[in-house]
Amino acid sequence: TGEKAFKRVPVMQLTADVTARRRRPEFPLGSPKQIVELASRCWEHDPSKRPSFKTIMETIDDMQQLHEQGLLFNQAGISQNMSQDR
């Protein structure tokens, strides 16, 4: 959407929400499921469960190739390219 996550939440409250309450931004409906899954892995509370930068870059490269082939799917399982054509 291009909107800033948690834009209406004061910084101190946001810090507590993210660290203590493990609050994370929500993705808009129709977001590519691969991106949602990657972001969720990056936001793991336990740092040892987060992907390495190398893994993140490889995953993004893979997603780019899927996108170019029309195979990047949104959360509803609809190809992003197909949904844009409608």
From TrEMBL:
Which Gene3D superfamilies does this entry report, sorted A to Z? Transferase(Phosphotransferase) domain 1 (1.10.510.10)
What Pfam families does the annotation carry? PK_Tyr_Ser-Thr
**Domain Serine-threonine/tyrosine-protein kinase catalytic, which positions?**
2-59
InterPro entries, from UniProt?
Kinase-like_dom_sf, Ser-Thr/Tyr_kinase_cat_dom
A GO term, aspect molecular function: protein kinase activity
* Name of the protein in its database record: Serine-threonine/tyrosine-protein kinase catalytic domain-containing protein
Q: Which organism is it from?
A: Tetraselmis sp. GSL018
